[in-house]
Specification:
This protein is 80% helix and 0% strand. By secondary structure, it is mostly helical. Helix 2 (23-43) packs parallel to helix 6 (133-142), helix 5 runs antiparallel to helix 7 (148-170) and helix 7 packs antiparallel against helix 8.
């Protein structure tokens, strides 16, 4: 599995002649690093002297935010490999025989299944990245003042991951025959891009104001 590689090995595989791991996997890796940064800020906040001065409600929000970050990190890490597997399935389907009408039909069905999955994996990533902005916003507000810039970097990486995921959704859309599924995914991607761009900017501006 890619996730078991060293960072150096993973980067070298991305840079190689092989088409995988590609943009979808790298987007999941960016999301993993983004949420890892937010998680770090949580861990540098909880238990500190200033943290103990927060109300119980704020402390509970922070604990819940950390729990969300940990869950999302596990999800993003899995998608580093899932995206590569999805693309490999498309490649396998393309290589299927098409010498008879029956084989053409089998190949076409396999291709449609593979393309839809190759679209759904990055779409899942884009959706999950959206969930990360609430805990990232929270820790940008209440986190350790010496580390909140890392929360802003996390927000930037998370949005970059959304952009990368959306590109990987859209590149598969033209090959999907079920236009209702394709157009629904396309519309959702545009909505995700618009919604979280503003939230990313809000987090970054909040942190810039705090550290200025």
């Amino acid at each position: 599995m890619l996730i078991d590689d060293s960072l150096k090995e993973y980067i070298e595989k991305v840079a190689s002649k092989s088409p995988t791991p590609g943009g979808g996997s790298v987007s999941a890796a960016a999301a993993s690093l983004g949420i890892a940064l937010s998680t770090m800020v949580y861990n540098l906040t909880i238990g500190r002297k200033f943290y103990e001065e927060y109300t119980d409600d704020i402390k509970e929000e922070i604990q819940q935010g950390l729990s969300i970050c940990n869950r999302l990190l596990a999800e993003y890490v899995k998608l580093i490999d899932e995206d590569t597997v999805a693309y490999d399935e498309v490649m396998k389907a393309l290589k299927m025989p098409k010498d008879t009408e029956e084989n053409k039909k089998i190949r076409s069905e396999a291709l449609q299944k593979a393309y839809i999955n190759a679209m759904n994996v990055p779409l899942k990533l884009a959706r999950l990245c959206g969930e990360a902005f609430t805990p990232t916003m929270l820790i940008a507000e209440y986190g350790n003042p010496n580390a909140i810039s890392d929360a802003a970097v996390g927000a930037i990486l998370l949005y970059a991951a959304i952009e990368g995921a959306v590109l990987n959704v859209k590149v598969n859309i033209p090959y999907i025959k079920d236009r209702e599924i394709a157009e629904k995914a396309n519309k959702e991607c545009d909505e995700i891009l618009a919604k979280y761009k503003n939230i990313r900017d809000e987090i970054v501006n909040k942190v810039l104001n705090k550290i200025s």
